[in-house]
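Q: Convert this sequence to structure tokens.
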Amino acid sequence: MMKKILFLTLGLLMAMTSFGQADTLQNVNDSVLLVGSHSEFSATKQENSVTKAEGDSAYLKNDYASAIQIYEALLKDGEAAEVYYNLGNSYYKAGDIAKAILNYERALLMQPGNADIRANLEIARAKTVDKVIPVAEIFFVSWTKSLINCLSVDVWAKVGIVGFFLLLISLYFFFFSRQVVWKKIGFITGIVFLVLVILANVFAFQQKSELLNRNNAIVLTPSVTVRSTPSESGTSLFILHEGRKVEIKDNSMREWKEIRLEDGKVGWVPASSVEVI
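A:
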């Protein structure tokens, strides 16, 4: 009787974790319309009477200006990694490297494990003027970030839910099996799936935070002077050029943003010179 009570208690506790994970998935999907691979985006007519297929057709005809207009119109109805990706390709072909990088970054934010997006982003970055050497990270931190970004938030959520049900099965064998070997198997696999559920929840929460609280931006103007204070009279510190990715450190002012580079440099730039990813 005590085993059943304990099993049900653990099941309820893990169910709360699972539902919290599912809520993470639902909340993110409400804010960003993530639709899978590049070929799966729906061709359903939008309110503005344009479809992704029309944008793709314009792109294949080398009519990049029309493709950009169509993709931009589609994004007004909801975000999708595939549209951002193709919009980035269109801007790249049109010679606007800064906006190409901006849209590749937005696509990568939604699908961090997509190798095509990452490869095109690196190609575009190679054409920028500024070469910033990032501050070296501890190996463990870099490895953890890579692990988190190998899957998107919705995939981590699904991993957490599947791991939860497998955990319940493992607990069933541990508590109710009469054979020692099955109890041992249930115990060991239960620990493994418990760790998996916890990590999946943590990773999904981390990616959800990045999606909802975007604090990185791209410089869109040909060049911008970074100043020591939020004023044109501030001391000139250094110059950044279009396509440079920056972290917004202080977003409290309307006309100015305090930024930080990957190498640790900080300063202020006009808000009109950057656009949030």
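The first strand starts at residue 216 and ends at 219.
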